[in-house]
Amino acid sequence: MQIGYKLSTEGFAPTEIIRQAVAAEQAGFDFVEISDHFHPWLDNQGHSGFTWSILGSIAAKTERVGLVTGVTCPTMRYHPAIIAQAAATMALISNGRFTLGVGAGENLNEHIIGEGWPGARIRHRMLREALEIIRLLWQGGYKSYDGEFLNLEDAGVFDLPETLPRIVVASGGKASARIAAELGDGIFATEPRADLVEGYAAAGGAGVRYAEVPLAYASSPGDAAAAVLEKEPWFATGWPVMSELPNPKNFKAASSTVREEDVLQQFACGPDVERHLEVVGQFTEAGFDHLVLHNGGPDPDAFLEFFAGELKPRLA
pTM to 2 decimals? Predict the structure, then answer.
């Protein structure tokens, strides 16, 4: 079991994200997972720095903690050749600490290139092609690829690490679980669903199993829930909605009916370590072995102190 800390680029400035990563390493986290967005979920989150620049700075300022993208879409906003090059470079400059988390993307971030937003089945086929291209380029030498959606022409990644990064594939159903099993080294989820782990295993997957755990630390459950309602109410819309809406204003409208009781039901809110362990347990029981603690509370440093002093010893 490994425990990670979520770095939300939508909620904090780039320099603050880097500071939090260093603090997370000092607090004893095994890895940090960083989101890869062009837009925030909501305008009042107010940020969305370029993840790959931030990652380079984190690698330079840390020594031990693992680095994971959670997650990058390598099909539209980025061509997979660029991600193959970027991930290989990150593996080198982090001394092998990098894991590439990928997914089929969200309209929120990918529509910006003006090519429309494909349906889910098309997005999965595009993701499969993207992973084939990344794997092909990581073989070394000049490579070409003629796909239904993506192409590669006489390209080569020159700086390749001896040990290639793991690829962990975001999954919300059977189709993406099969892609994770066939072309990835692990699965990534945001819900405590045993069926995703079981589907991944049934398709031949035997790798790592990442999941984001919704926590919100504050001095009281009410204060914690209020922070989530202010900045992260979109969580309640569910992945089918989260992948389809194009702009922060749409997420504001879609999450306008989320209530405090909805937050308290899904998040571990407040200072009670037992409640936090209860929510974490939902994910371990579902079969996940790399847990990313996503703090929706108002004070990152207070959460890191709570983790180091109370939560981490109990998780161990």
Answer: 0.97
Catalytic residue among 37, 276, 290, 294: 37
Q: Could you give the number of structural domains in the chain?
A: 1
Q: Answer yes or no: 294 catalytic.
A: no
Tokens of 159: 């700086």
Which residue ranges in the chain fall short of pLDDT 70? none
Domain that holds residue 44: 2-315
Residues in the chain: 316
Strand blocks (E) in 123-219 = 143-146, 151-155, 166-170, 186-189, 208-216
Per-residue pLDDT tens for 65-104? 999 999 999 999 999 999 999 999 999 999 999 999 999 9
What's at 215, amino acid-wise? Answer: L
**Catalytic site residue 106?**
yes
Judged on CB neighbours under 10 Å (0-12, 13-18, 19+), 262 is middle
Q: Residues of 183-192 as b/e, b for ≥16 C-beta within 10 angstroms? A: bbbbbbbbbb
Side chain identity at 90, as an amino acid letter? M
CATH code of the domain covering residue 47: 3.20.20.30
